[in-house]
């Protein structure tokens, strides 16, 4: 779950699907209420007499009494934004990236009334009645894809989605027809059967593991209320409507609405680690109306009307009717399957969604599949090979027709087309279908004989190579993050090679470039800047602490404090500045959803208070408040307890308006010990200054604005804090409006937002805070290496412009040499003019660099940096201005997008992806980054502080941004080079074999007779030549890791597609044709006048082509290992053994043929002549090209090979220019 970053630096989005229920009560109820502690044991520890007693407030008794409603914990709005839109995105309505109001259209179920037809009716503790109308899904889950009966047909159906498999199936079927039988019927099916079998075994093993996991999950036990008693029941047997009890540290078996908990106020703490990867505790609440009921004794009867099952794990819309009351239910009242109960003895709830209808199961489909760009381009070559195959078959069939026409009088006795069978006493006719049909059958038979021109083994070879590459990437210790104890994750095996062709990187800032570990640095309070924080001096007390029940409680983390501010808080409380400072830190301690947890230490007299929350920002603010003497000790659904400089005070929480991306702020309404009711509000400056009453302190506001600008320039995250006091009438008005909004069946979220907007007004500014989010280790160096590699790094963040620019300089993304183009527009026309002016400026600067080059001065490109905000993008994306932005952005070295919404991030990625053929990579750590991660060609998730939504939606995951350098420059380069070579080698390997068969057909009256046995033809791609190419594809390294990291420019080889392109394909095919001519005609000419039979010379051709293709591979291997030696030379040995075995079987054609031909010296001379004649020309061309026009990679390899790294390092090596302009679309 993403952090609450928007509380500080919001992005311009307008979505809030959460429907919270705010704790509120009449003044009288709250003032007279007895304090209740969520932990009974805490009552003995905390001295309640120290709490300031509340007394009646004047005029409050007239207010109506209402039950205390529960406060819901804040959820991440950024994550909600993506989740809701991702669900909508699959519909017919197109996703608009630029619209600032786009997400507001996706309120989901909170915006529409739940009718009886659309609702799920759940009768509490009555599963029979609940399932009477509709039989809801049971709680048994099944993640396995197959059963024993469906495995074979379904697996085959899925595998035959590959067109190549259908092609080989058709070939095998054709070979079964008597008229077209060229190979043995079993032999023709073997290649396809082998590939299908290997894939099926892999799929079966994976599915067996899924079934095993399902059995374990379904057989777990839970406590279910049956006949007035809680009894153990298998998870699989739980039904919707049943009442369950979950104990501490147990996992929820289904989605259930909370009815009661061990806490007196109905709070339950849950950990959603299994759901979204977050370890921070979340708070969920039971309604007061059900809290006091004991299910075992009096029972709980009622009706829950909720929305139908959906994937939105952050939203829930329902109503509960109990004891004649209708209560609204929201996300804070439901606990989802997979969550774990923590710090709560027990919780009771009713199952509303079970089994496959639970939200976690509905979200288990995974990220959308991506396809490798290299594999996409490979299809072009496969089509060319298909045309080549058709050409060969057409040549054979046409010339066969001509031959039949010329020899039509000799067909009765022709050795290839005998129409008469003279083997028996009675002469019989062979099947002869006439001249036209014979041509057609010859064409089909040619397709069967030349079928391996399309390499079926290539697909499974690519899968195995990618698997091996992924293994070594995962095992790479340089990609291991010690701080989080996380290894590199390869979540998508089909795009490994794309890592070597990246041109654009789109990066989030917070948590990706920075650590997302917030530290309070400074504050501006009532116009005074307090930024003189310092570390503790020797002998000083280790931060603030309080004494509770004889134990010393102190915050888990300490914050650098400003001595002047500390003195003011302790001694200047009666001054105006002191009062404002008091309210400022009270706001920091109260306006949040932080839960304080007390942990033991090695010292039994000391306890540490660990502030658990979903937002690192909020945690930093609460730790800062504790350092300055405002220590949050306890939080329940109705009140908080804060120790204020040694005086323990109780504040009743009357209401809480959480953050939403329209308001860009959050607020809490508290009843103070002095009987005053205050509204504390914090949020981004852009939203706060609009609701602050400037008449209350204009000079303070101006000073605060100046301090904010200074903080942002230092790269700090900023936050503005304000407050106001509520009188009785204002509170009554707010309470009435809130109750009406929270129980509304339509548009509840927008109504609650309107209520919050009315109370968050006419505020008195208290001050602002500055929080530092430090850069991750190695980020500046990583960005510099990526820029040297020709990769453009764009940063897309929700932060303020000043903050983003400061971080840009810190991480070396921006430099002093760059000319900055800043676009901050508030209308479409102003945005259009800004883009036109920026384009003119860029042309002028480029013109200056060109003139310098023409005047004898070396031309130097003027680096440009484009900085644009989210408001401008609202008018640019999804409009005709997109092309203007694209033309401008691609001329810039750096692009910084500030204040952008999640969908705008995806829109920026689409801007490049849809207009160029360059590869894009998106990297982020939060749920607000998921949209761009899935939009990019390669998506990488950072295992950071914001949960694991980005990781779960990514193709690869790692712990630090700096790992991009070894991932792309080393593994990406290796993977691309290996896979590109392997594809071309497979085309060559199969084509040379087919062409040998083709040349033979030309000398056998075009009759498709083959000298090479059918079993050798089948085993050629399976045993003879398959393993070496797989091993080389996994282990070969054209350059060492050290060289690739030292010279990032070498990465540009992948961007230029040096290892796989159409030119290389045609050169490979040309070499293939030449080598096939050598392999065929050397033995043909040598044995032309001899009496050797076809099987013998066929064995010679088989051995010659296998040795040749393996020698060909050995010539290109750069990094030799013992495994490489074994597979290459072992494959040649295995071929000899297989040929011998085939020839010693009397029932097969060519019995003893290898022994007859191998005993002559001519046989071995032919093998040697073939290898020399076929390989030497290729060797000469290869050496010549590397000598006269070497590539960057070849130059670097020479330096490695001859061991002259020192000289190489001292020499400036001129490398090929890195493409700076975008590639035009070719796909």
From TrEMBL:
Cofactor(s) in the UniProt record: Mg(2+)
User: Where are stretches of biased composition, namely Polar residues?
Assistant: 34-44
Recorded hits in NCBIfam families, A to Z, give:
ATPase-Plipid, ATPase_P-type
Specify where the region named Disordered lies, as residue ranges: 29-59
Q: Which residues cross the membrane?
A: 187-205, 382-404, 439-460, 987-1006, 1018-1035, 1064-1086, 1098-1115, 1122-1142, 1162-1181
Coiled coil located at which positions? Answer: none
Protein's GO biological process: phospholipid transport
Q: In its keyword annotation, does this UniProt entry include Transmembrane? A: yes
Family annotation (InterPro entries): ATPase_P-typ_cyto_dom_N, ATPase_P-typ_P_site, ATPase_P-typ_TM_dom_sf, ATPase_P-typ_transduc_dom_A_sf, HAD-like_sf, HAD_sf, P-type_ATPase_IV, P-type_ATPase_N
Write down the species: Nelumbo nucifera
Q: Which Pfam families match?
A: Cation_ATPase, PhoLip_ATPase_C, PhoLip_ATPase_N
Output the PANTHER family linked to this UniProt entry: PHOSPHOLIPID-TRANSPORTING ATPASE 1 (PTHR24092:SF91), PROBABLE PHOSPHOLIPID-TRANSPORTING ATPASE (PTHR24092)
Enzyme Commission (EC) number: 7.6.2.1
- What is its membrane topology? Multi-pass membrane protein
Predominant cellular place of this UniProt entry's protein: membrane
Q: Does the keyword Transmembrane helix apply?
A: yes
The protein's name is Phospholipid-transporting ATPase
Q: Where is the active site?
A: 508 (4-aspartylphosphate intermediate)
Where does the UniProt annotation locate this protein? Membrane
What CDD domains does this protein's entry cite? P-type_ATPase_APLT_Dnf-like (cd02073)
Which residues bind Mg(2+) per the record?
A: 508, 510, 925, 929
What Gene Ontology molecular-function terms does this entry list?
ATP binding; ATP hydrolysis activity; ATPase-coupled intramembrane lipid transporter activity; magnesium ion binding
Q: Which residues form the P-type ATPase C-terminal domain?
A: 951-1191
């Amino acid at each position: 779950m993403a952090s609450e970053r928007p509380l500080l630096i919001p992005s311009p989005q307008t979505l809030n699907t959460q429907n919270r229920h705010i704790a509120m009560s009449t003044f009288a109820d709250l003032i007279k209420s007895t304090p209740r502690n969520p932990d009974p044991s805490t009552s003995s520890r905390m001295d309640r007499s120290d709490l300031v007693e509340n007394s009646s407030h004047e005029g409050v008794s007239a207010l109506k009494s209402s039950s205390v409603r529960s406060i819901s914990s804040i959820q991440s709005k950024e994550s909600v934004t993506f989740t809701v839109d991702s669900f909508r995105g699959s519909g017919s309505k197109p996703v608009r990236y630029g619209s600032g109001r786009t997400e507001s259209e996706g309120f989901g179920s909170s915006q529409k009334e739940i009718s009886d037809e659309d609702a799920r009716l759940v009768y509490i503790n009555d599963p029979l009645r609940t399932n009477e109308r509709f039989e809801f899904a049971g709680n048994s889950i099944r993640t396995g894809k197959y059963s024993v009966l469906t495995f074979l047909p379904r697996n085959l159906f899925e595998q035959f989605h590959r067109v190549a498999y259908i092609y080989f199936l058709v070939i095998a079927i054709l070979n079964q027809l008597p008229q077209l039988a060229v190979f043995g019927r079993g032999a023709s099916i073997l290649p396809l059967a082998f590939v299908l079998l290997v894939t099926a075994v892999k799929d079966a093993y994976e599915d067996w593991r899924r079934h095993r996991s399902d059995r374990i999950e379904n057989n777990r036990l839970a406590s279910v209320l049956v006949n007035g008693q809680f009894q153990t029941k298998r998870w699989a047997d739980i039904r919707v409507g049943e009442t369950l009890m979950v104990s501490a540290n147990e996992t929820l078996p289904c989605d259930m609405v909370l009815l009661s908990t061990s806490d007196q106020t109905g709070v339950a703490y849950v950990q959603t680690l299994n759901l979204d990867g977050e370890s921070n505790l979340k708070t969920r609440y039971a309604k007061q109306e059900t809290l006091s009921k004991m299910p075992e004794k009096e029972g709980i009867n009622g009706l829950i009307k909720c929305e139908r099952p959906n994937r939105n794990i952050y939203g829930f819309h329902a109503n509960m009717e109990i004891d004649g009351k209708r209560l609204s239910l929201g996300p804070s009242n439901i606990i989802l399957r997979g969550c774990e109960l923590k710090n709560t003895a027990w919780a009771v709830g009713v199952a509303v969604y079970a089994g496959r209808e639970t939200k976690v199961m509905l979200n288990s489909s995974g990220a959308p599949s991506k396809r490798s760009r290299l594999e996409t381009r490979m299809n072009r070559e496969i089509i060319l090979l298909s045309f080549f195959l058709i050409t060969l078959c057409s040549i054979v069939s046409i010339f066969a027709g001509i031959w039949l026409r010329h020899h039509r009088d000799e067909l009765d006795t022709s050795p290839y087309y005998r129409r008469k069978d003279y083997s028996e006493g009675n002469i019989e006719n062979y099947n002869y279908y006439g001249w036209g049909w014979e041509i057609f059958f010859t064409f089909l038979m040619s397709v069967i004989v030349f079928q391996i021109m399309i390499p079926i083994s290539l697909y499974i070879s690519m899968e195995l190579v990618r698997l091996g590459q992924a293994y070594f990437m995962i095992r790479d210790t340089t990609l291991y993050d010690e701080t989080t104890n996380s290894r590199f994750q390869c979540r998508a095996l089909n795009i490994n090679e794309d890592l070597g062709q990246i041109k654009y990187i789109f990066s989030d800032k917070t948590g990706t470039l920075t650590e997302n570990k917030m530290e309070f640095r400074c504050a501006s309070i009532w116009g005074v800047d307090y930024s003189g924080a310092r570390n503790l001096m020797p002998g000083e007390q280790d931060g603030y602490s309080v004494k509770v029940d004889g134990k010393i409680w102190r915050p888990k983390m300490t914050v650098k404090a400003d001595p002047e501010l500390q003195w003011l808080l302790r001694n200047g409380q009666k001054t105006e500045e002191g009062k404002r400072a008091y309210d400022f830190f009270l706001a920091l301690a109260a306006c949040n959803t932080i839960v304080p947890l007390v942990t033991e230490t090695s010292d039994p007299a000391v306890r540490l208070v660990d502030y658990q929350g979903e937002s690192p920002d909020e945690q930093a603010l609460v730790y800062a408040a504790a350092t300055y003497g405002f220590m949050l000790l306890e939080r329940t659904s109705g009140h908080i307890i804060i120790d204020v400089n040694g005086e323990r005070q109780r504040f009743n929480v009357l209401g809480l308006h959480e953050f939403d991306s329209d308001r860009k702020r959050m607020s809490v309404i508290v009843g103070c010990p002095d009987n005053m009711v205050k509204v504390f509000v914090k949020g981004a400056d852009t939203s706060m200054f609009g609701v602050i009453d400037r008449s209350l302190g204009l000079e303070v506001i101006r000073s605060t604005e100046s301090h904010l600008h200074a903080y942002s320039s230092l790269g700090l995250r900023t936050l503005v804090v304000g407050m106001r006091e509520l009188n009785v009438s204002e509170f009554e008005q707010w309470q009435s409006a809130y109750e009406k909004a929270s129980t509304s069946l339509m548009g509840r979220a927008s109504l609650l937002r309107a209520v919050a907007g009315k109370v968050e007004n006419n505020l008195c500014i208290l001050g602002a805070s500055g929080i530092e989010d430090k850069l991750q280790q190695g980020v500046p160096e990583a960005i510099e290496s990526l820029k040297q590699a020709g990769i453009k790094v764009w940063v897309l963040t929700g932060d303020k412009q000043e903050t983003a620019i400061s971080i840009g300089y810190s991480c070396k993304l921006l430099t002093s040499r760059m000319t900055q183009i800043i676009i901050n527009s508030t209308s479409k026309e102003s945005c259009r003019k800004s883009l036109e002016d920026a384009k003119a400026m860029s042309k002028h600067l480029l013109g200056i660099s060109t003139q310098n080059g023409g005047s004898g001065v070396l031309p130097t490109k003027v680096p440009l940096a484009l900085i644009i905000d989210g408001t401008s993008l609202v008018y640019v994306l999804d409009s005709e201005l997109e092309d203007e932005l694209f033309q401008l952005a691609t001329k810039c070295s750096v692009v910084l997008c500030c204040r952008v919404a999640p969908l705008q991030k995806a829109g920026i990625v689409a801007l490049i992806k849809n207009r160029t053929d360059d590869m894009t990579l998106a990297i982020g750590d939060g749920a607000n980054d998921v949209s761009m991660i899935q939009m990019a060609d390669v998506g990488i998730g950072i295992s950071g502080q914001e949960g694991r939504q980005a990781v779960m939606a990514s193709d690869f995951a790692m712990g630090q941004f700096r790992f991009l350098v070894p991932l792309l420059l080393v593994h990406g380069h290796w993977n691309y080079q290996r896979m590109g070579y392997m594809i071309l080698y497979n085309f060559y390997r199969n084509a040379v074999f087919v062409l040998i068969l083709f040349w033979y057909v030309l000398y056998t009256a075009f009759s498709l007779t083959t000298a090479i046995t059918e079993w050798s033809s089948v085993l050629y791609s399976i045993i003879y030549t398959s393993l070496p190419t797989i091993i080389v594809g996994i282990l070969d390294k054209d350059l060492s890791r050290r060289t690739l990291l030292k010279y990032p420019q070498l990465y540009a080889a992948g961007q230029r597609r040096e290892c796989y392109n159409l030119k290389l394909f045609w050169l490979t095919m040309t070499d293939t044709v030449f080598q096939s001519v050598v392999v065929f005609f050397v033995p043909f000419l040598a044995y032309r006048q001899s009496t050797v039979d076809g099987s013998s010379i066929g064995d010679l051709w088989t051995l010659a082509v296998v040795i040749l293709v393996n020698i060909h591979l050995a010539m290109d291997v750069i990094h030799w290992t013992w495994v490489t030696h074994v597979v290459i030379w072992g494959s040649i040995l295995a071929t000899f053994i297989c040929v011998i075995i085939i020839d010693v079987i009397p029932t097969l054609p060519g019995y003893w043929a290898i022994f007859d031909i191998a005993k002559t010296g001519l046989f071995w001379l032919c093998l040697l002549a073939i290898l020399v004649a076929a390989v030497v020309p290729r060797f000469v061309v290869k050496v010549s090209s590397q000598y006269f026009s070497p590539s960057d990679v070849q130059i670097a390899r020479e330096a490695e090979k001859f061991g002259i790294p020192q000289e190489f390092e001292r020499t400036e090596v001129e490398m090929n220019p890195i493409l700076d302009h975008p590639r035009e679309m070719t796909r």
